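Batch job 17 of 40 flagged for manual review because the log was empty.
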Amino acid sequence: MIAQAIRPVTDKLALLRSHTLFRDLPPKVIEQLGAYMKKRTLARGASIFTKGDPGTGLIGVLSGSIKISVPSNEGRDIVLSIVREGEFFGDMALLDGRPRSADAEAMSDCEVAVIERREFLPFLCGHPEIMLKLIEMLCLRLRRTNEQVQNVALTNSSIRLAKALLRLGTETKAPNGKIKIKQDELSEIIGRTRESTNKHLRTWAKNGWVLLERGAITIVKPEKLAEIAAEDLEFDQS
């Protein structure tokens, strides 16, 4: 259940000012757009929407992180992306008005800001430059998805894991290489079992390449993971 949040409206405006879609807009226009945004709080594990739900709005993350996933035939989630503070999601359904194409779930206690489609589309018509940036954002996301599919199909589990950790470290700007993520969540991202993921992580921890903590993984020697990620190996069943 999404509940109403109680925090200063300046948080919404800061989200708009810092995001590439909106930061070049005049201050008065950002304030106008911020007035449309409704803030909500979410408990960890809460469902924001599920695949097939009506696509009614664009959602920005004020705090916490959101998992975007689809269920596999084996009953496990396939994680498409993790949306973090300062990012937006839900733009596909926002533009085409079709049902949601994936599930969105809070990975932690979160606060989000929602712009309804019926309010955003008229705004968008008056600012075509934002439409171009939305298209760029969608293309970038498609490229990442294509890369993810290729990794799943053509690389073994150690390469997938190394690439995922390096990417997460870059995307989250992890302080001192520390990434806040659980091993089961990481397993969903690379499409492997938790046991397989833990096996590789324990080996790397023994070698001193990573440090394992509850709910976090610290990359100690990124150059070692980069060497693994660069390996050109055929897909195996490890």
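Reviewer: the log was empty due to a logging misconfiguration, but the result itself is present. The chain has two domains: 3-152, 156-229. Unflagging and moving on to job 18.
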